[in-house]
Structures are given as structure tokens and as C-alpha cells.
Write a structure and sequence with these properties.
Blueprint (H helix, E strand, L loop, with lengths): L1 E4 L5 H11 L4 H4 L12 E6 L2 E15 L2 E13 L8 H15 L4 E4 L4 H6 L2 E2 L3 E6 L8 E4 L4 H8 L5 E2 L3 H11 L6 E2 L2 E6 L2 E11 L4 E9 L1 H14 L4 E7 L13 E3 L4 E4 L2 H14 L4 E5 L3 E5 L2 E5 L1 H10 L8 H7 L17
Parallel strand pairs: 4-5, 13-14
Antiparallel strand pairs: 1-2, 2-3, 3-4, 3-9, 5-16, 6-16, 7-14, 7-15, 8-11, 10-12, 11-12, 12-13, 17-18, 18-19
Length: about 350
Amino acid sequence: MELRNAKNQENKQVQDLAVKVFKPNMREQFIRLFHEQNNERIMIAKDQDEVVAAVNHYTTEIISNRGLFRVSSIGAVCTLDAYRGQGISTRLLALTEAKMLQDHVDFCIISGRRGIYQRFGARDVGAIYRYQYVPKEKTIGELRPYQGEEDIMYKLYQTEPIRYIRDREEFHDLLIAQTYPDSYQDYPIYIIYHEGIPQAYVIAIDHHEKNVLQIKEYAGHRSSIVSCLLEICQKHQKNQVEIMIPKHDSLRHHMSVRGQKMTQQATLKIIDKPSFFATLNAYAKKHHFNIEWLYEQENVLILNNQRYTLSDSDLLALVFSGQVNPSWTAEEKKLIRKVVPVGLPWSHNLNYQ
């Protein structure tokens, strides 16, 4: 059996494998992940002439509230039934990690929470708040169904302070792919205008058998976003709305109900620790916080000149969930919370892979 990255002539086999393992529209919904230009990030196991397993990742950047991070999304991890239980995906993940290190990826986000990802060292972390409620606000302005106003949406997206970096072509591809309908749900898009000026957009998830309307992505003026949710629910005959909002997103201040803290519903792993820590250190230095992160075969955090060694799991929980060590002093807790948790976009938005 041969383990390596995919070649152009094998790209269709990888897509066919994903379709067979997951669902019929995988190739339409993940056109960036499966694109031939991404073949060097598609790791496959090939037995004779057949692709029997694949681990795919797509690399981009995130503008966070703590700096710029290079990030890979790992998805469509699949193995034919006859080849499962042989550790093939584990070996492909190792190849994937080597490629991510080569590409100076700070951390990865995996669209899954299975045991294989836990063994890989990824953890289900994040600082997201879930709001599920019956909206009552009246739309501020005019709500219009999307009719190809992609340029307007892109301009609104560019105003988001915490976001994946998307160029114009990437935004187009992700918008088309991640709103490609499933057999069981659609992805309606709306733009909110006020006095003829676009204020915000909302991409919803209309599951045909659920009475809850989920929100996949939003951008723009926060009051406009909240105000349109009732009207969108009514259009799709839903009783409630569910929206996931990152901790540092000002949209939380516009909500009339209390949110439930949760994770990204995905697993994360830091890949290039020196690079990742350098970004956090730059932020701390800029704001004159007495904090320093070091990687010396172990993860080291220096708080007010006090040195702490962190396990990988504790590091992930601290950095992405804001989970501090209860034994630290009140002053240390207050200080570290000036840096953690790192604010990230909701991982199930258009960049979901």
C-alpha cells in the first residue's frame, strides 16, 4: 500500500471515495478542498489502482483578535469499509501534520470529534456561545432574498474584525459550494438594507424536518442581523432560531437572551508552536502584559515571572476555551485572561471543510 499526496489523475477517485463514504454532493460542497490545485494537501492511501483512504486539508489564514494565524481545515477523512481498523487514517494524519509543518501552519481545525482526532492530539475546544430562542424583533430596514449580489456580500464580509481571510475568488467558490443544497436542508441567503444601503447578510440553514432555523454565517451591522431573524424564521415556517456567536463578537451584546457556552464543535491542534506562541507574545508585548509563551520541548507559560509547564490538552483548553488553572493566583488569572481565549470565527461557516 502506498501513502502519499494525490496526483491530478487521482483527484476524481478521492472525490468518489468521499461521495461513497459521506453523501452524494460532497464534490459540489467542497470544491476548494478537492480541487486539483490542492492535491499536495490531499493525502491518500492507494492499494494497487484504488484510492482506499484519504485525509484532506485546506490552508488559509484567520484574522483574530490576537493576531494573524495560518490555519488548516482538515475534513472529508474517509476510508473504505474493508480497510478500516488498520491505522491507515492515523498514518495519513501524520503525513498531513508533516505537510502542515512544512507550510508553517499555526494550528488546524478538524471537522470531527472522533477518537482518532483525540489520539492525534486535537481537542474539542473553543469559546462559542449558542443562542436558541424565539426572536421577537422587527426587521430594521428591508430584508431581501439573495439574487446574486455577491459583491455586496463580499464587501460586508471584509468589515468583519475576526474572520477567515478570503480573496474574491475564494469567497465566490465558498459561497457557491457551502450553500449547495442537501437532500434534507437548504441554505437560504438574505441581505438586509436600510434606506437602500446594504447593512448585513445572513446565511441560514433550513432543515426540512426541524422547527429551528440555524444560522451558518452572518456579516455586517449587528442590530440589523438580530432584527431580521424573526422575519427569516417566518419565511421558512420555523418557531425558533439558533445562532452560534464567538465570545468576542459584539453581536452577543444585542441578544435578548442568555447564551450557552460551548466549543467550536470541532477539534483543534496547535501545529507550529513556535510560530503560534510568537503571535501571542507579540500581542502581549504590544499591550505591555507580563506574559511570555515558550516552547522548549514542553509548553511553557511565564506569568508575572512565574514559570508554568502546560500539557498539550491544558494548553488547548487555555488558549482556545479560556480555561485557566484553578491553582493560579487571582492576579495571574486576571492577567492571562487579557490574552485568552483567542477569538476565532464559528468553524461551521462558509470555510467549513
